[in-house]
Amino acid sequence: MYAITGITGKVGGVVARHLLSAGQRVRAVVRDAHKGRFWSDLGCEVAIAEMEDAAALTRSFSGVTGVFILPPSNFDPGPGFPEAKAVISAVRQALDATDPPKVVCLSTIGVQAVKSNLLSQRTLMEEALSTLPLPVTFLRPAWFMENVSWDIDQAREQGVVSCFLQPLDKAVPMVATADVGRVGAELLLQDWGGKRVVELEGPDWVTPNEIASELTKALRRPVRAEVVPRENWAAIFRAQGMRDPIPRIQMLDGFNEGWIRFQGNGAIQMKGNTSLAGVIQKLVG
């Protein structure tokens, strides 16, 4: 039995499907019973737990072969990341109490960066779980290709992609969520011990210009990439409803300036096989 958190999302759902197709039993950890019905129909056991609820997570992780931890994303955290810290505390307590044979935790590229940024929430999670006396693999994927989904309407209607990743010819490591979920399931099924880091990227690094080119093909209309001046970012993000855009801006700076990158240095390097063209065709279709 494998307990999967974040199962209703893209990555967690892929992890669960791969495990089910491999003949494994899956416990779907969801926040409410309604979200669990889909997975119970597929043969999963369902456990109800908020990610901040240590007692509920402890029940969810009890008696399993492995646990997949997918921390909830928070793009507008409070100062000092209190929301992430609440999740981290609950997850750590639950894992410490249940002592599962193995844990795979979804982390991120750039988790080793010294400068605070939006991804520092994953840094805090790794720091907390690294002190547990049980096997943990931290899966650090690159920038998700599916982030392009935010650009499709503008590309379709205006023929433009407004880019915060810049310059437009700078390649960034990216990966499809399908590959992240598949690798997450494979790691759970492998035999290993201790603490490990797995860094996962797609088959090729990608530039904003290449994203525009693939959108041109998929939408069958010209699409060009356009730089969004950095001095405008804060106002744009606040207009979108963000209370504090600074962590997000710092993350983007990290990618653009190159200090958010893969660590290497002893990490296991893996590559996915899903292309940007395939992801965009699916998103557009």
Protein architecture, described:
The protein is an alpha/beta fold and 285 residues long. It has one domain: NAD(P)-binding Rossmann-like Domain (Rossmann fold), CATH 3.40.50.720. Helices cover 41% and strands 19% of the residues. It has eleven helices and 13 strands. It has helices spanning 10-21, 33-41, 54-61, 82-98, 120-129, 152-158, 177-189, 208-219, 233-239, 246-257, 276-284; strands spanning 2-5, 26-30, 45-48, 66-69, 103-106, 136-141, 143-144, 160-163, 172-175, 195-201, 205-206, 224-227, 268-271. Strands 3-2-1-4-5-6-10-13 form an eight-stranded parallel β-sheet, with helices on both faces. Helix 2 links the parallel strand 2 and strand 3. Helix 4 packs parallel to helix 5 (120-129) and helix 8 (208-219) crosses helix 11 (276-284). It is globular, with a radius of gyration of 19 Å.
Task: Briefly say what this structure is.
The protein has 285 residues and is of the alpha/beta class.
CATH class: Alpha Beta
**Spatial shape:** globular
**Average predicted local confidence, pLDDT:** 97
For this structure, the CATH topology is Rossmann fold
Strand content: 15-25%
| Coarse structural class | alpha/beta
The largest sheet, given as strand count, sense and whether it forms a barrel, is: 8 strands, parallel
Counting structural domains, the number is: 1
Order of helices and strands: EHEHEHEHEHEEHEEHEEHEHHEH
- Enumerate how many helices there are, as a single number: 11
